[in-house]
From TrEMBL:
The keyword Transferase applies. Coiled coil: none annotated. The lineage of its organism: Archaea, Methanobacteriati, Methanobacteriota, Stenosarchaea group, Halobacteria. This is Diadenylate cyclase. The keyword Transcription regulation does not apply. Belongs to the adenylate cyclase family. DacZ subfamily.
Length: 270
């Protein structure tokens, strides 16, 4: 077929096929079509019973995010190697797989997002909401000026025990959750002020204005960054929380877990 001469380049000589949320019959058809090719399934659940499977914690709306996340997971699980070329088959419009993209897996492109979502205590949707909020805050700043912010997500009881209030807690008697549109407006308003936000595993905003007093010391943070990042890193060594930190000074968003930076992104790139 003449079209194969043109579009065939997209899937020619790939190291593996990455199938995103396939139906059982689609998966069977592909396996049957070419027994030589490695097939890796990416989905929220392994309904098709694939041997090579990467769990997606959420259905990413953006295909690019979905694919990037999947590739990080596949690298992490050593299902693919650095430099492997994948034919990524995904659904972009509605219902079924309709798009194939040719993507090279590059270790250097890893953002750490897989670790952040897949192996954290808080619910993935909660982490996603906080990450989106912080990225938006980083993009827009507060009335055009750069702002810093510190969000501690998960293991909230322990985090509260290792911190103290800097001011009254506007969330004291409320039952608001991250992701509510109104909350995003409120959080942005409060983030102008000092201290950290504490969020529960399920996304409840437990407190604003917390001054973290972790007992862990000596976490490695990039030069030029100070106490916000030091405290944000150290609290994740002391507890099972993760932190998402926006730097006022360099504008980057970083995530910490187990006392280490596991993700660093420039909000302007989103
Ligand atoms: N232990 C802490 N808990 C919560 N917030 C803190 C803590 N220490 C510092 N902060 C907040 O971080 C702000 C900035 O402090 P600092 O400049 O030392 O941090 P930084 O890591 O350099 O971050 P940035 O890049 O945003 O400047 C402080 O004004 C304060 O609001
Ligand atoms: Mn600083």
């Amino acid at each position: 077929m003449a079209l194969d001469d043109v579009f065939g380049d997209i899937y020619a000589n790939v190291d593996a096929v990455a199938l995103f949320s396939p139906s059982g019959s689609y998966y069977e058809r592909l396996i049957g079509a070419d027994e030589e090719v490695d097939v890796i399934v990416f989905a929220t659940e392994n309904d098709v019973g694939a041997d090579a499977f990467v769990e997606l914690p959420i259905e990413f709306d953006e295909v690019e995010e979905r694919v990037k996340f999947g590739i990080e997971g596949a690298l992490e699980q050593e299902l693919i190697d650095d430099g492997d070329v994948l034919a990524c088959a995904t659904e972009v419009f509605d219902g079924s797989i309709d798009t194939v993209s040719r993507v090279r897996a590059d270790e250097d492109d890893r953002l750490g997002i897989y670790d952040l979502f897949a192996k954290s205590r808080a619910e993935p949707e909660v982490i996603k909401s906080v990450l989106e909020l912080v990225i938006e805050l980083g993009k827009k700043g507060q009335k055009g000026k750069p702002v810093g912010a510190l969000f501690v997500v998960g293991d909230a009881g322990k985090v509260m025990n290792k911190s103290r209030p800097l001011s009254y807690n506007p969330f004291e008697k409320s039952h608001v959750h991250v992701g509510d549109p109104i909350v995003n407006v409120m959080l942005k308003e409060f983030s102008r002020l000092d201290g950290a936000f504490v969020i529960s595993d399920a996304g409840k905003i437990v407190s604003a204005y917390r001054y973290l007093e972790p007992s862990a010391e000596g976490v490695d943070i990039p030069k030029g960054l100070g106490t916000r990042h030091m405290a944000g890193g150290a609290i994740t060594r002391d507890t099972n929380a993760i932190t998402i930190v926006l730097s006022e000074s360099d504008g980057l968003v970083r995530a910490f877990k187990g006392g280490e930076i596991i993700m660093e992104v420039d909000p302007e790139a989103y």
